[in-house]
Amino acid sequence: MRRSPNRTGIGLLIAFGIATTYPAAAQVTFGSPADPPRIAIGGGVFDVLPDNRRPGNGRTGMALGEYRFGDVLWILAPFVGVLGTGQGSFYGYGGFGFDINIAERFVVTPSTAVGYFKRGSGVDLGANCEFRSGAEFAYRFEDLRRIGVGFYHISNAGIGKHDPGAEFVTFILTMPFH
Fold this sequence. Notes:
The protein is mainly beta. The protein has one helix at residues 5-21; strands at 28-30, 38-46, 60-68, 77-85, 90-97, 100-102, 106-118, 129-140, 146-155, 166-176.
């Protein structure tokens, strides 16, 4: 079905008008300098997109805990954490993230980390040094607690014998640490 150029133009004009009508409602800021350090706990699924052609791959439960220092270096917030899977794998890591605040309550936190990975009976990631990248999407309550979901990729960036990588998804509760 072919669209009329007039209908497409009118649709684009309406979308542009809606997007520019309420700029304050979609205010975006970087960093959260007023937020104190935080403790984060989470649980979810490790190797959520398994490659079934490799032995040991497959979805498994996981839990994580992190200490987030808050905005220490401009908008960058360092953190340290540990992750364990239901198949006995362990990952201890440290890295940086930064908050992208959308309006007052919604926070997107892209982050990157590097750490030590010890394989259990699950997926073989090819090296002990593994890199993690991803983002957390959260809702911030008035008392500064957050609840959200994180999507991450972990791999050795080609420094190991092989580099299958793995993805994981986690639900995260973050509480201010006073």
